[in-house]
């Protein structure tokens, strides 16, 4: 990623509306009367499930992908100097800025009916979601950002330990739910979409085939991916030039950036 300047701009969580007013507006306003503006890099990573959620819901939205030049020039206000960030615009000039992928995804999922039918289902869906999210984080730290000389060993270890345990554990829970393509009950949820999104992410890394072959070995896990493939609300999005651009740019990004030069890694340690 490009580096932001020291005086990078920030957005604040303070608003001209009171917290009660924002909560009331959000509770009382239909999704069709909101506008969602998501900013994220043109890659498959922590912000890519939010794109799927917006497309699934068919709400009015824009996806902004700031250029590295704008990022380095300090033209992108964030909360924590990273993306994704989400701006939600509603009636009475209400605008709220949100940060952190997990918060954005669960906020959107709740609005779009993807957090189950009750508090228990919501908690269970968020549990699976969180664990899926964590797999992506571990794939970065354990394989992608590893120094060249350690890459093969690290990847083998990721496959034989982290990914294997993830797949075994998720296969268990999905079989417990009846191996029906869903994590919870028989309804599409954030957990299903997130799993499918992470499979797509793995399809864009340099060792994609190996990773997908592993996923395919687990019947119930793969069934979730296939079930999401059949979600018609996502057809147009997946066929779009925009989606293809994100996909190609992701493949390109991971191919170029997953090789960490030894010296860069040493400098980080010092
Ligand atoms: N905890 C944050 C992490 C977000 C994050 O690491 N974003 C990366 C891209 S995946 C980023 O924007 N990096 C820009 C930079 O480090 O300059 C979240 O889950 O949203």
UniProtKB/TrEMBL annotation:
Gene3D superfamilies: 1.20.1050.10, Glutaredoxin. One of its GO terms (biological process) is glutathione metabolic process. InterPro entries: Glutathione-S-Trfase_C-like, Glutathione-S-Trfase_C_sf, Glutathione_S-Trfase_N, GST_C, GST_superfamily, Thioredoxin-like_sf. GO terms for molecular function: glutathione transferase activity. Residues 34-116 form the GST N-terminal domain. SUPFAM superfamilies: GST C-terminal domain-like, Thioredoxin-like. Residues 118-255 form the GST C-terminal domain. This is Glutathione S-transferase. It comes from Linnemannia exigua. The lineage of its organism: Eukaryota, Fungi, Fungi incertae sedis, Mucoromycota, Mortierellomycotina.
């Amino acid at each position: 990623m490009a580096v932001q300047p020291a005086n990078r701009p920030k957005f604040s969580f303070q608003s001209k509306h009171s917290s009660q007013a924002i909560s009331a507006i959000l509770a009382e306003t239909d999704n069709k009367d909101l506008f969602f503006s998501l900013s994220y890099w043109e890659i498959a990573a922590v912000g890519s499930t939010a794109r799927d959620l917006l497309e699934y819901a068919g709400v009015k939205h824009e996806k902004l992908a700031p250029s590295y030049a704008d990022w380095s020039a300090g033209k992108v206000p964030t909360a924590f100097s990273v993306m994704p960030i989400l701006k939600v615009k509603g009636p009475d000039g209400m605008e709220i800025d949100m940060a952190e992928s997990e918060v954005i995804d669960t906020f959107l999922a709740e609005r779009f009916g993807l957090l189950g039918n009750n508090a228990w289902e919501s908690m269970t869906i968020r549990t699976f979601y969180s664990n899926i999210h964590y797999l992506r984080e571990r794939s970065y730290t354990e394989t992608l950002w590893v120094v060249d000389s350690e890459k093969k060993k690290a990847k083998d270890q990721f496959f034989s330990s982290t990914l294997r345990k993830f797949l075994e554990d998720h296969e268990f829970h999905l079989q417990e739910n009846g191996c029906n393509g869903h994590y919870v009950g028989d309804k599409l949820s954030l957990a299903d979409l997130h799993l499918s999104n992470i499979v797509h992410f793995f399809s864009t890394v340099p060792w994609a085939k190996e990773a997908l072959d592993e996923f395919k070995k687990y019947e119930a896990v793969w069934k979730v991916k296939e079930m999401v493939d059949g979600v018609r609300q996502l057809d147009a999005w997946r066929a779009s030039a925009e989606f293809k651009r994100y996909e190609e740019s992701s493949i390109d990004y991971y191919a170029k950036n997953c090789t960490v030069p030894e010296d860069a890694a040493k400098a980080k340690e010092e």
